[in-house]
């Protein structure tokens, strides 16, 4: 009987310390974490994850999905960390609070939605009002068709909200599974206008370079604008490009884990430099360090 009791005690102690060890396996700079990422900004997050993993003993698995799928994963607890191209709405925040979850939200960059067209057309200008009219089902000569990455993507959501429509028009709208497929389709089909995340142009993969050579990035005129503005880093910074949007990392882990460490890294100096290098706009422009010497050394003869 005594041996049996001792066995139970040792088993409980082993279970307790095992659980404690597993919990401590993940810290803000160590461990494994899966992060669901809006597919339209995947290249930027891949660059961030690569540098983070080289600096720390961490493994970050990026899972690219549409905006709707990313939000569903957060709400259903399938992921604890996600990257979105917009902030959570008040309704979404209330839904989390009802589950006793307070998301930690970090704004880390400003992105842009880019419109692309096949180079066979010499027209590199497009008025936003024409896009809105097309989304409302009113055909026009400026647009033959709009091509999105996914019917549930953040680009679709953004343009639908801009046009104040609940559903996509039945004709003239095409969707695929990724931004890469949109670029490929537009490069091979005249007259189509692709709607993609700017990050896929500013940091293209090697396999996309040949397709990008056959498309033009369009300059867009705002609804109340008088000039056409291209989605450059400078124009995004000045707030003149009409299709800019903020990027957020949303952490619902509920503890100080790797998700918190990665968010801090992206919002920190190194992460913001990666954003700057990617062609997007960091929330905090990294400063430059200058070494000032009190004396000028004479060059050796």
TrEMBL record:
InterPro entries: PBP_domain, Phosphate_ABC_transporter. It comes from the Bacteria. Keywords: Signal. The keyword Repeat does not apply. It holds the Pfam family PBP_like_2. The keyword Cytoplasm does not apply. PANTHER family: PERIPLASMIC PHOSPHATE BINDING COMPONENT OF PHOSPHATE ABC TRANSPORTER (PTHR30570), PHOSPHATE-BINDING PROTEIN PSTS (PTHR30570:SF1). This is Substrate-binding domain-containing protein.
């Amino acid at each position: 009987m005594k041996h049996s009791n001792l066995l139970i005690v040792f088993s409980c102690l082993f279970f307790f310390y095992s659980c404690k060890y597993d919990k401590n396996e993940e810290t803000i700079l160590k461990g494994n974490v899966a992060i669901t990422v809006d597919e339209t900004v995947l290249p930027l997050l891949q660059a961030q994850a690569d540098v983070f993993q080289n600096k720390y003993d961490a493994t970050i698995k990026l899972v690219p999905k549409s905006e709707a799928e990313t939000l569903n994963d957060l709400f259903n607890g399938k992921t604890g960390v996600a990257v979105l191209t917009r902030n959570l709405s008040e309704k979404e925040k209330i839904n989390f609070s009802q589950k006793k979850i307070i998301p930690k939200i970090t704004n880390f960059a400003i992105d842009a939605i880019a419109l692309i067209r096949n180079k066979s057309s010499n027209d590199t200008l497009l008025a936003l009002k024409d896009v809105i009219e097309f989304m409302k089902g009113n055909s026009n000569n400026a647009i033959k068709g709009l091509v999105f990455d996914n019917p549930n993507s953040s680009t679709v959501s953004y343009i639908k909200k801009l046009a104040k429509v609940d559903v996509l028009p039945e004709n003239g709208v095409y969707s695929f599974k990724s931004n890469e497929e949109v670029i490929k389709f537009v490069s091979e089909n005249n007259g189509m206008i692709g709607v993609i995340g700017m990050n896929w142009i500013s940091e293209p993969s090697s396999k996309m370079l040949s397709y990008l050579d056959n498309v033009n990035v369009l300059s867009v005129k705002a609804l109340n604008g008088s000039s056409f503005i291209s989605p450059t880093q400078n124009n995004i910074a000045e707030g003149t490009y009409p299709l800019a949007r903020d990027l957020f990392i949303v952490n619902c882990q509920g503890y100080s884990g790797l998700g918190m460490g990665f968010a801090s890294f992206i919002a920190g100096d190194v992460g913001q430099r990666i954003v700057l290098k990617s062609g997007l706009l960091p929330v905090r422009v990294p400063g430059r360090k200058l070494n000032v010497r009190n004396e000028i050394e004479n060059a050796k003869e």
